[in-house]
Automatic annotation (TrEMBL):
<keyword id="KW-0067">ATP-binding</keyword>
<protein>
    <recommendedName>
        <fullName>Arachidonate--CoA ligase</fullName>
        <ecNumber>6.2.1.15</ecNumber>
        <ecNumber>6.2.1.3</ecNumber>
    </recommendedName>
</protein>
<dbReference type="GO" id="GO:0005524">
    <property type="term" value="F:ATP binding"/>
</dbReference>
<keyword id="KW-0547">Nucleotide-binding</keyword>
<keyword id="KW-0436">Ligase</keyword>
<dbReference type="GO" id="GO:0047676">
    <property type="term" value="F:arachidonate-CoA ligase activity"/>
</dbReference>
<dbReference type="GO" id="GO:0005783">
    <property type="term" value="C:endoplasmic reticulum"/>
</dbReference>
<dbReference type="InterPro" id="IPR042099">
    <property type="entry name" value="ANL_N_sf"/>
</dbReference>
<comment type="similarity">
    <text>Belongs to the ATP-dependent AMP-binding enzyme family.</text>
</comment>
<dbReference type="InterPro" id="IPR000873">
    <property type="entry name" value="AMP-dep_synth/lig_dom"/>
</dbReference>
<feature type="domain" description="AMP-dependent synthetase/ligase">
    <location>
        <begin position="134"/>
        <end position="251"/>
    </location>
</feature>
<feature type="domain" description="AMP-dependent synthetase/ligase">
    <location>
        <begin position="295"/>
        <end position="509"/>
    </location>
</feature>
<keyword id="KW-0443">Lipid metabolism</keyword>
<dbReference type="InterPro" id="IPR045311">
    <property type="entry name" value="LC-FACS_euk"/>
</dbReference>
<dbReference type="GO" id="GO:0016020">
    <property type="term" value="C:membrane"/>
</dbReference>
<dbReference type="Pfam" id="PF00501">
    <property type="entry name" value="AMP-binding"/>
</dbReference>
<keyword id="KW-0276">Fatty acid metabolism</keyword>
Length: 687
């Protein structure tokens, strides 16, 4: 047998395509293979054995080597211009300009989606919860469906009407009862109005009155008491019933009775018989389905961790559309964000929805844990090797580098992650590329708003480049419109992002003025964000229209863009950039990272506690210099750089009212809290 024929037979028996064996052929020396045969070789038995072993190993590698994910479309053309207008684009996954409205024909409402999951999973786990130091306990799909039906029947018994104009408030953190209450409302076509602490008392009263809410479901007595206080003041006259998850005192019941409010335990609602003519569930609440992008499939065995607020659309779409619709599981954190990592290790989720702030923390923690130069060099080399695989479309967590370097990182997140979804704010390309390599799983980035059912763009499976938020989802068209004041023009490929499609909302409840501001006459939702179309048809977020302000010299400032740049600085955990139309420069409020700040200052010869360092002018100067260097490297203009800053030792949080539940800065509140420091910096800094 000729040598070439022998190799060809080996290749065909292993099922190897011609193109896949090029690496092997390139390893061979140049030989006159046309005239070369095994019979002409004079080799010892050990040499022949070695050659056979080499050939077997090569064939094994060619068969089992990691394969790149096959993208669902051409990654160089992920979106298509609509009617020849390059500023208006739709998904390349669509056959024509007709947008996708429903992913499954029999699934058109939230209720339908859960019923689909119920048919798939039946008695399999649905909702999980745990007590400190204990494993997760699970409620099955069948149990959840029955509990929701009984709760909905109890709502009818309390006088709620089975139609979408009946609003029921839910004022509680993420837990199984939240989802059961929501599903109970949907079972009888009622609408849910989520409430949360950071709304503030005035906004809470406004919502209760605007929606004419008579019944609010709460988790504990303290929250119900805040509802009752408004009733006692006479500012929420429609409130008549409070339903609590937890036990409550007899004194609270008496207090509520004095202002004609009934207090019930959730189990009491389950036991109430519904009106006789309304005992069968219906599903009239219509909701557009934000379809998944491309070829990635959610499986019944997938598990998600629920900790992002259910009061916001992002988490609810993750649960209902992604998980429940496919019979998958959702495990809830214990309600304490400081215990989240312990919950993740215990739950071992396969799906991890996140916001960029959390990914930034994970990134900083990984880098901060590597102290020796040798280990740091090894980490960065391993990241580069994994990123090289990513660039060829290979995503895996079983490589040599995963076993040697990244296994502890992956174990800290449960060790089972298949995919991560980040949204709500831009994420640094550096952080995204680093974590894609270290976590060894798919990390997608999406963009959208509550007003377009959470999502309108999504990164494409197989595209592991960073610096964009993907292409339009099949349910949305996205176009850019001119913003002359900021010098953005659609003809140049950038402008305000506008969205149209079945996932766009119809308007704000009883607020025609705000509705007309958000929706134009053609049904386009104006997001207030500024985007740019990239050559491959993906969208990049480059600016923000809603929070822009003008300095005294006439320059427009987008503070969130600058803050995202400064957060790449090693000592910086959080930053708030402030400007004034009467001032010519920017100043900042910076919260140093408590995990690295002391060591960072010590490396510069400054010793002290976290609080002492925040008061040290030399430390402030060093932090400011570091921020300016990072800003310059990122391309910030001189007027976009802060000229002074105040170091604050306490982190911005939901608890102190400086962050929203989705971890965005409450800009007006931060300005109010730090007004004294802001005024002082402007009075002392000379330009």
């Amino acid at each position: 047998m000729h040598f070439q024929e022998w190799l060809r037979s080996l290749r065909s028996s292993a099922g190897i395509k011609s193109s896949e064996s090029e690496d092997f052929w390139s390893l061979l020396p140049t030989l006159p293979v046309s005239s070369f045969s095994l019979s002409s070789l004079s080799l010892s038995p050990s040499s022949l054995l070695g050659l056979g072993a080499l050939a077997s190993l090569t064939a094994y590698w060619l068969v089992y080597r990691p394969r790149p994910m096959r993208p669902p479309c051409d990654l160089q053309a992920q979106s298509v211009a609509v009617d020849g207008d390059p500023s208006c684009r739709r998904s390349a996954l669509l056959k024509d300009d007709s947008l996708l409205e429903f992913y499954y024909d029999d699934t058109r409402t939230f209720y339908d989606m859960f019923q689909r999951g119920l048919r798939i999973a039946g008695d399999c786990p649905c909702l999980g919860y745990r007590k400190p130091g204990q494993p997760y306990q699970w409620i099955s799909y069948t149990e959840v469906a029955e509990k929701a039906r009984l709760l909905g029947s109890g709502l009818l018994a309390k006088g709620c009407q089975p139609n979408p104009q009946q609003f029921v408030g839910i004022f509680a953190p993420n837990r199984p009862e939240w989802v059961i209450s929501e599903l109970g409302c949907y079972t009888y076509s009622m609408a849910v109005v989520p409430l949360y602490d950071t709304l503030g008392p005035e906004a809470m009263v406004h919502i209760l009155n605007m929606a004419e809410i008579s019944l609010v479901i709460c988790d504990r007595e303290e929250k119900a008491a805040s509802m009752l206080e408004n009733k006692e003041k006479g500012v929420t006259p429609t409130l008549s019933c409070l339903v609590l998850f937890n036990d409550f005192s007899d004194a609270f019941v008496e207090r509520a009775k004095d202002c004609e409010v009934e207090v019930l335990k959730l189990e009491q609602l389950h036991r109430m018989p519904p009106p006789e003519l309304l005992s069968l569930p219906c599903a009239l609440l219509i909701s557009s389905l934000v379809s998944s992008q491309g070829s990635f499939v959610i499986r019944q065995e997938d598990v998600s961790i629920s900790y992002l607020p259910l009061a916001h659309m992002f988490e609810r779409m993750i649960q209902v559309v992604s998980m429940f619709c496919h019979g998958a599981r959702v495990g809830f954190y214990q309600g304490d964000i400081s215990l989240l990592m312990d919950d993740i290790k215990t739950l071992k989720p396969t799906f991890f929805p996140v916001v960029p702030r959390l990914l930034n923390r994970i990134y900083d923690k990984i880098l901060g844990s590597v102290t020796s130069p040798l280990r740091r060099a090894l980490l960065h080399y391993a990241v580069r090797r994994k990123q090289a695989e990513l660039s060829s479309g290979v995503v895996r967590n079983n490589s040599l580098w995963d076993k040697l370097v990244f296994n502890r990182i992956q174990a800290n997140l449960g060790g089972n992650l298949r995919f991560v979804l980040t949204a709500s704010a831009p994420i640094s390309p550096t952080v995204l590329s680093f974590l894609r390599a270290t976590l060894g799983c798919l990390i997608f980035e999406g963009y959208g708003q509550t007003e377009c059912t959470a999502g309108c763009t999504f990164s494409m499976p197989g595209d592991w480049s960073a610096g964009h938020v993907g292409a339009p989802l099949p349910c949305a068209m996205v176009k850019l419109v001119d913003i002359p004041d900021m010098n953005y023009y659609a003809k140049n490929g950038d402008g305000e992002i506008c969205v149209q499609g079945p996932s766009v909302f119809r308007g704000y409840l009883k607020d025609a003025e705000r509705t007309s501001e958000a929706l134009d006459s053609d049904g386009w939702l104006h997001t207030g964000d500024v985007g740019q179309w990239l050559p491959n048809g993906t969208l990049r977020i480059i600016d923000r229209k809603k929070h822009i302000f003008k300095l005294s010299q006439g320059e427009y400032i987008a503070p969130e863009k600058i803050e995202n740049v400064y957060m790449r600085c090693v000592p910086v955990l959080q930053v708030f950039v402030h400007g004034d139309s009467l001032q010519s420069f920017l100043i900042g409020i910076v919260v140093p990272d408590p995990e690295v700040f002391v060591d960072w200052a010590k490396d510069r010869g400054i010793v002290g506690s976290h609080e002492e360092l925040c008061q040290n002018p030399d430390v402030k100067k060093a932090v400011l210099e570091d921020m300016r260097a990072v800003g310059k490297e990122a391309g910030l203009k001189s007027f976009e750089q802060v000229k002074d800053l105040h170091l604050h030792p306490e982190t911005f949080s939901v608890a102190n009212g400086l962050l929203t539940p989705t971890m965005k800065s409450r800009r007006a509140d931060i300005r109010r809290v730090f007004q004294e420091q802001i005024s002082s910096m402007y009075s002392k800094t000379a330009i």
